[in-house]
Each structure stands twice: as C-alpha cells, then as structure tokens.
Amino acid sequence: MTSEIDSTAHKGLTIVYTGDGKGKTSAALGNAFRALGHGWKVLIIQFLKGDWPVVFGELASAKQHPRLEILQLGKGFVKIMGDPKPLEEHRLAACEAMRLAKEKIFSGDYDLVVLDEVNYAVDALNLRLVKLKDLIEIIKKKPARTHLILTGRNAKQEIIDLADLVTEMKEIKHPYQKGVPAQKGIDY
Amino acid sequence: MTSEIDSTAHKGLTIVYTGDGKGKTSAALGNAFRALGHGWKVLIIQFLKGDWPVVFGELASAKQHPRLEILQLGKGFVKIMGDPKPLEEHRLAACEAMRLAKEKIFSGDYDLVVLDEVNYAVDALNLRLVKLKDLIEIIKKKPARTHLILTGRNAKQEIIDLADLVTEMKEIKHPYQKGVPAQKGIDY
Asked: For A113, phi and psi rounded to 5 degrees?
C-alpha cells in the first residue's frame, strides 16, 4: 500500500549529505518530517547506532505515526573493537541488513527512504561491511518515484556521480575545538 | 515556565548553518525535532516565507505539540517587488518583529530557538530590514542555557566569529542544474 502523492511529474531524487560538518543526519531528519507533513510514507534505516530512536521513540509514542517506519540494521556491527563476536558474524548481519533494505526499498511502498550514515558504513570502516555495489544497485533500481537520502561523510565518488543532489556539510567551526562537550538535544 | 533540561553543565550553543547548498533549514528542522524528542521547549521564528507551516501545520494539528511555538515575523516583508506597501512600513514591521524575537528569546522560556533564514534577511536583501546589530545583541544576551540556530546563506563574519558551531552547506550538485523542477516533499 502506497501513500498518496502528487501524480504530477514526480521524479524521485537521490540526495547525498556528506562532508565532515554537523548537520547531515539532522538535514535528513528534517526532510523526513517535511515529507511526513506532506502525507508521504517514510522509511528510515540507520546503519550506525544513532540518537534518532530517542527522538522518534517519543514522537512515535506521542503520535503513533502510521507513515513512519524505522529500522536499525546491522545493529552494533560497527563497534567491533572490544566486541567478542567474530567478524564473519558481523559480515553476515550486514549482508542480511542490506538484503532487507533492498526488499523494503524495491517494494515501492515508500515515498522517501533515508539511509542514515550509509556512506560512512561503506567507506570509513575499512571493513566494507556495507558493499558499494549494493548501494549502487539500490540507487539504480529504486522505484522511480521514491526519494532516497544517503548520509555520512566520505561519500564515494561513484555515489556522487549517481546522485541528483549533493551537499557537502563543511565544518567551519566546531565547539569540540574549544573543548565544549557534546550537548544533549543538539548532538544527540 | 521552562521545560526540564539537564542540570549538568549545559551551555547553550550558537549554531550557524550557512552556505549555498541545500540542507540548512532542513538541518535546523531536524534539530528542532531532536530537541522536542528530549522534552525541550522550542521556538522557531521564520524570517522568510517558507514551507515549514505546511509541515508544522499538520504536525501541530496531529500532535497539538505543547512545546513547539512558531512565529512568522516580518511576514511578506521580503516580497518588496510588486508589493504596494511603502518601504517604511516594512521597516517598521521588521523592527517590531525583531523586538518580539528578542522579547521571546530573552524571556528564558526556550531551550532551543531557530531563527530561520535570518542570515539571508540580514545580508542578501541589501535592505537590511533585519539589522546585524540586533542579531549580535541576541547572540550576546540570550540566556546562557538557550541553544540558538541561525540559518541562511551569507552569514556575516561577525556572526561566524560569535558562533560556537558553524557548518557551511556547500552545493556540490543540484538537480536544477539538470533542469529538474523543485520537488514537493523535498524542496518544500
């Protein structure tokens, strides 16, 4: 079942929020709420442990929003240091996570899908638990009307080439530089 | 009446989202929802006609959120071309808008205040309906615990110097470059 969207010329965009600055996940979160405001159906997949469950947990309980679905895939698979599970187990979990992500996205049920921190999961871990080719397949084969937002620093050039809209969030100034600790409500 | 916040060392940050790329207002919107998720009290002031009322209109009606307040100040004062009202009238409206913004912010009632597109209102209109010195006064005199987010391109250097966190949203790629029109749910 799909939600109502305009029948007027609608092209699902692939949007990338990358760079080292703050605001990537926040922007995707803002877009998600904007989309919900338009009556769209939204799927958010988190590839790293994030703070969103806190937000969405409260909002979900307050609103019981029927058009927002959140999946935490590969839960914990980044915290490999100090984690007793063998790497192979993580690889299998990540593989299963991407399979589920594809299934959900290709179902055509969603107007907007956010893959939060997926760029980071592909690149920066050096473990390549999330494969670049899987991400490319998602971009190329997603339903035409579905908007896709990919966040995370160090987006691969192949992803940038395929995207319609790319913003680099560039860090100009950060309070950590002055020793200010992470702030509740702002950073998490 | 203020909402509950951590009593642990809490410093209200001044955050600037600037640059020519997409995601500034979206990031502030995401931060606002994150803050609401933490039980904070949030004030959003829009200095340009935006799309937020659409989103918040629905959310507000769905949730009747008691901790979110939205003000559209200087309504219409940017659309000066083709607008029959004399400039002086707009100046008075903008002046009154900033007075109200200060009153609200200095009241100490809010954990997070977003001044959406205020950088643009200060700089790019060349009419300086919103005065830089008023914005500087807000940053300097806001309650210590209140977080402040200022969005809009071309943030003045004085504002960047005073801010704790500055991200430049840099446009790497935009669909308008390929002739794709603005997309509902993404751009507005």
From this structure: -125, 130
Rounded to the nearest 10°, the torsion over CA B58, B31, B99, B83 is -50
Q: Of 3.90.76.10, 3.40.50.300, 1.10.10.410, 3.40.50.80, which CATH number belongs to A14-168?
A: 3.40.50.300
Q: Is B33 in Cβ contact with A30 (below 8 Å)? A: yes
- What pLDDT digit, counting tens, does each position of B103-151 carry? 999 999 999 999 998 998 887 566 667 889 999 999 999 999 999 999 9
Quick check: pTM over 0.95? Answer: no
Q: At what angle do helices B87-106 and B132-141 cross, to 10 degrees?
A: 10
Question: Measured between CB atoms, which of A26, A111, A172 is closest to B31?
Answer: A26
Q: Nearest-CA residue of chain B relative to A161?
A: B173
CB contact under 8 A, B51 and A34: yes
The confidence score (pLDDT) of residue A29 equals 87
Q: CA dist A121 to A56, A75, A125, A188, B29, Å?
A: 22, 12, 6, 19, 25
CATH superfamily of B14-170: P-loop containing nucleotide triphosphate hydrolases (3.40.50.300)
Nearest Cβ partner for A173 among B29, B51, B160:
B160
Instruction: Give A21's pLDDT tier (boundaries 50, 70, 90).
Output: very high
Asked if B166 lies within 8 A of A172 by C-beta distance, the reply is yes
ipTM of predicted complex = 0.81
Determine, for residues A33 and B15 on separate chains, whether the beta-carbon distance falls below 8 Å.
no
- How far apart CA A130 and CA A46 sit, in angstroms, is 12
pLDDT of residue A84: 62
> Which of B13, B168, B185 faces A21 most closely, judged by CB atoms?
B168
* A23 or A121: which leads in pLDDT: A23
Query: Which residues touch B184 (CB under 8 Å, ≥6 apart)?
Result: A5, A6, A10, A38
B-chain residues near A25 (CB < 8 A): 30
